[in-house]
Amino acid sequence: MTTCGLAAVGRAEQHIGGMHGRAHLIPASVTRSEGRWDGDDYVVEVRGLMREGALFDQNVSVARTIRASVGASALQITDEVRNEGFERTPLRLLYHFNVGWPWLEEGAVVETEAQEPGQDEGSGNWERTVEAPKAGEPETVDALIAVPDADGWASARIQGSNRSITVRFRPEQLPYLTVWRSKAAGSYVVGLEPGTCWPGHVDGPDFGKAGVVLAPGESRTVNLEFEVQAD
Fold first, then answer.
1. Are strands 189-195 and 94-100 parallel, antiparallel or unpaired?
2. How confident is the model at residue 231 (pLDDT cuts 50, 70, 90)?
3. Which residue, among 137, 210, 147, has the nearest Cα to 177 in the 3D structure?
4. CATH ID of 2-230, from 3.30.9.10, 1.10.1040.20, 2.70.98.10, 1.10.3210.10
């Protein structure tokens, strides 16, 4: 997983970080790591802090907690993104989960609880079948709108013949989903990318590329779950 943002997602000018912004280039500081019993589960938890800021520029921090139970097939990610500055600050944030071989294979299916812009509201059942890699094959980028289930979550999944990878997220926090498919031999990968926006260069309406604005001192919490299953 790569964290894209915080000022830009997609192709961007160098003064705001270039491709997918600066966040993935800034080291985080581990602030806490522990293991403990929670009932019958042994939980491992790591917390860290990353800040993107400069004089006369934005000052935004991300406090991240990664949590997993020993023996479980899923881990949870919780981010608290805070505007530490004194001005209203645009936030563009996208989580780039990249999946390749052997999880990605010919005939695997990309399934999402999302819809294309303009579809009837609530019809969240978008899927595509993965083709075999080919030399020189162009990439494909789909800009989608997440649709929550009865519990308020949405998901994006790659289902192979005997294994799957699933990303779950909350559309009120991350309303947009980008599915990036590189079918070229040598760069055979699918990206499942929930975010506050779509990358700025994708073919989609402008309203999905704006992101959100954080007031001074305002924070935004993001919850995700990443699960791996194999027969």
1. antiparallel
2. confident
3. 147
4. 2.70.98.10
